[in-house]
Amino acid sequence: MLPYNSSYLSVEVSDFILNCFVRSPSWQHWLSLPLSLLFFLAMGANATLLITVWLEASLHEPMYYLLSLLSLLDIALCLTVIPKVLAIFWFDLKSISFYACFLQKYIMNCCLGMESCTFMVMAYDRYVAICHPLRYPSIITDQFVAKAAIFILARNAFLTMFIPILSARLHYCGKNIIENCICANLSVSKLSCDNVVLNKIYQLIVAWTLLGSDLILIFLSYIFILRAVLRLKAKGAAAKALSTCGSHFILILFFSTILLVFVFTHIAKKKISPDIPILLNVLHHVIPAALNPIVYGVRTQEIKEGIGKLLRRVGKSSN
């Protein structure tokens, strides 16, 4: 192993090369169009939802503030990942600077953790709304949302900060080709000629601490919600209660499912094409972002009405 030398490090890894779908080059051609459409759909739908919540006074409530936070995170994730992937597909711009690579890694990990934590807070919101409806206005307040947002930001920004730091301190002795479309944690770390056991252990701990604990608390919340709903005896009360949190549960289930599929395909990569986990990794940063505002817009009457008012305003101003 070459001795560690900071000047050598800065020369040798001034940039990385994102070698995207080298085993399936045709994927770039057929994937670029749907990926770009999903990107513009995600950006447009989330921007529309944010503007609707901002302009419509009836939506100035904690639940919609949390949904706005989710939209902001989706926009941040898309902008961090998808433009670079499309630049690789369209213009073969595979190079990414050393610092840009680790910045992308940090934002991806931080935003995914923040999304998971936001889903957890939203699950708690639905739990209080269904199980303790009379106490809901006193528990879920604007101050609660502000404190929850600070907690979401602080927890994930701090714990995920050490993932790129641990990777950046490694000694990269000449190899700079990343077999991925993005600067994924292990795809970058395995280029090092140092021992990466600490990186893997810390990443595993953070994943279980953040995503694992969030998913456990989310599903516990829905178990209590389901139990409370089954006790409702009023006609149509159970259906109404489930409808209020149905869209939220759909999004959580999709977020969890696509994440688990990615994990299992990564584990079983010897049995499938190595490009499959790379494809799922890219899609995981855009499909949930495109679906989140659409599912809420379709299933939430207040948001549909708000978007309708916004479109009417735009129509009047254009005339």
TrEMBL record:
The alphabetized UniProt keywords are:
G-protein coupled receptor, Membrane, Olfaction, Receptor, Sensory transduction, Transducer, Transmembrane, Transmembrane helix
Which is an annotated GO molecular function term of this record? G protein-coupled receptor activity
Q: Name one GO cellular component term.
A: plasma membrane
Mention any Pfam family matching this sequence: 7tm_4
Specify the protein's topology with respect to the membrane.
Answer: Multi-pass membrane protein
Boundaries of each G-protein coupled receptors family 1 profile domain copy?
45-296
What SUPFAM superfamilies does its record include? Family A G protein-coupled receptor-like
What are the subcellular locations of this protein?
Answer: Membrane
Q: Which GO terms describe its biological process?
A: cellular response to lipid
Kindly indicate whether the keyword NADP belongs to this entry. no
Membrane-spanning residues: 33-55, 67-91, 106-124, 144-166, 205-229, 249-268
Report the Gene3D superfamilies cross-referenced here.
Rhodopsin 7-helix transmembrane proteins
- What does it do? Putative odorant or sperm cell receptor.
- What protein am I looking at? Olfactory receptor 56A3-like
Tell me the name of the encoding gene: LOC111159279
